[in-house]
Specification:
By secondary structure, the protein is α/β, with parallel strands linked by helices. The protein has 19 helices and 14 strands. The radius of gyration is 22 Å and the shape is globular.
């Protein structure tokens, strides 16, 4: 099949011409809002939308294959990983064209080709060692929920009227054009996860894109469903409004972690020590400000009959170290038990071996029920609670700093080579890991933070740690493999986004300039 056929390209160009200008206006509005927060030091629920928050309205009923979402597996649309995800036994596969992918053109196009084959159940793969991967036929396959890129990212390989198209419209447009009717014929529909939204207006733009796309391709109105990742702090103050803005397309909200912490640092980067976070490994979802966020999310979703989806379990089980597995799986199980007890309807895993762990936990709570939409949470969450970062326990340590530097360098090296889902230290890391890692380093330097031993975090200290961590990586890989990598470019990129005086809003923007 030709992903970039004349008809498909024309559809994407049409979307860009119709909606590209509004997208640009909304990105400018983000900048203006950030400047206002920098001036006032405040973020609050919008008084002008109080009626929406108080109103008695509901999201539309879920389609049959989205009523049970207790286990969702996430991953890029690389061919082998697509097959493994579809064979995992999860209820949903989040087909990721965002944080677990990279915008290398081969990934953008190849991912669409793999999605086309996945929708039609014709996808297969033969590995270099001769092993063949095919879809299972002995049980239902997961519903596919596609995640396009965020509004902030361009796609420079698709120019419309001399300007790059929005990556989000390219990803959505190609997938919808090629698969909407096929999905309907197979008893499903086009489903999407929407990342990085910061306001109800950005959700409204997606609603208008969906409505136009359905009309243009003669798909029944209201067919699409969208789940929004609440992974920015501004969006946490507009959960009701975002669901309301999506209208007939609203399906639910998801509670992120690393991207949410990254957003807190980014938005409040000039507000002093009260927004300084300790080591990221010490920041659990039980921290007061994160607890407030997840309680508000579940309460909001269930009041509106929308799904509340839990966060990622990124652990990759080890085939060689049972002790590592025992400790890590206990933590995964504990995290999922917290989510299920709090009322979440399901949760994410990054590896097929975690599907059974997550399902076991949610099965115990849900029983024969497909979800917990009928479970209402009587909670009140204030702006002060959502912003109470200072109450987060933990310290800034050398190990935490060193871990941020090492993981960011390893991830960026892989990202520049076209791999957006990277196994590091038994964890499946994506762009959100690199974002929180580099933003913490930037924050600690800018705020004059001292390690728990009294040593100040400075650019010189970070550069010395880079030297040491890169030497360790070289020793582990061997000289030949290290030399074949992109570690020099990764270091330059890391220093640009972690050591510069000005905060870079998204590291993927300068990183994109370094790829084909």
């Amino acid at each position: 099949m030709d992903v970039l056929s004349t008809a498909a390209g024309g559809f994407v160009e049409d979307l860009q011409r119709r909606f590209g200008p509004r997208r640009a206006e909304l990105l400018a509005a983000r900048t203006a809002r950030r400047a206002e927060i920098a001036r006032t030091g405040r973020l609050d629920f919008r008084p002008e939308t109080a009626e929406i928050r108080a109103g008695d309205w509901r999201a539309p009923a879920a389609p049959a294959d989205l009523t049970n979402r207790r286990v969702e597996i996430t991953g890029p649309t690389e061919r082998k990983m697509t097959i493994n995800a579809l064979n995992s036994g999860a209820q949903v596969w989040l087909a990721d064209h965002e944080d677990a992918n990279t915008p290398h053109w081969a990934n953008v196009v190849g991912g669409q080709e793999n999605l086309y084959a996945a929708v039609r159940r014709t996808i297969s793969y033969e590995a270099p060692d001769g092993r063949r991967y095919e879809l299972r036929t002995d049980r239902p396959l997961p519903a596919i929920v596609m995640r396009p890129r965020g509004w902030h990212l361009d796609e420079r390989h698709v120019a419309v009227d001399g300007r790059p198209a929005a990556g989000a419209l390219v990803d959505f447009g190609l997938y919808f054009f090629h698969n909407a009717h096929e999905l309907l014929a197979r008893g499903s529909a086009p489903y999407f996860y929407l990342p990085k939204l910061e306001s109800q207006h950005e959700a409204r733009l997606w609603r208008d894109v969906f409505a136009y796309a359905e009309e243009a391709l003669r798909v029944p109105a209201g067919t699409i469903r969208a789940t929004v990742l609440i992974e920015t702090i501004p969006a946490a103050f507009e959960m009701d409004e975002i669901l309301y803005a999506l209208g007939p397309y609203a399906s639910g909200l998801n509670a992120g972690r690393w991207d949410y912490l990254f957003s807190v640092i980014k938005i409040f980067r000039d507000q002093g020590a009260r927004f300084v976070l300790p080591d990221r490994g010490a920041v659990t979802m039980t921290a007061p400000f994160l607890r407030a966020y997840t309680e508000l999310l579940v309460a909001t979703c269930h009041r509106r009959s929308a799904f509340a989806m839990g966060g990622m379990a990124a652990f990759i089980p080890s085939r060689r170290d049972p002790q590592v597995n025992e400790v890590a799986l206990a933590r995964v199980r504990e995290d999922k038990e917290r989510e299920a007890a709090d009322g979440f309807d399901g949760s994410w895993v990054a590896h097929p071996d975690l599907v059974d762990v997550c399902r076991e936990v949610f099965d115990r709570v849900l029983g024969d029920r497909p979800n917990q939409l009928d479970r209402q949470r009587d909670v009140t969450v204030t702006a002060e609670q959502l912003l109470d970062v200072a109450a987060t326990p933990g310290a800034v340590t050398e190990a935490g700093l060193r871990g941020n530097v090492s993981v960011a360098l390893q991830y960026l090296e892989a990202w520049l080579g076209g791999n957006g889902a990277v196994a590091i230290n038994n964890l499946m890391e994506d762009a959100a890991t690199a974002e929180i890692s580099r933003s913490q380093v930037w924050q600690w330097i800018q705020q004059g933070v001292r390690l728990d031993g009294g040593v100040p975090v400075t650019a010189d200290l970070v550069r010395a740690i880079e030297d040491e961590e890169l030497a360790r990586i070289r020793a582990a890989l061997g000289e030949q493999a290290y030399a074949a990598g992109r570690f020099a470019a990764a270091r330059t990129l890391f220093e640009q986004v972690a050591l510069g005086d000005e905060f870079v809003d998204f590291l993927t923007i300068p990183a994109y300039r370094l790829v084909d």
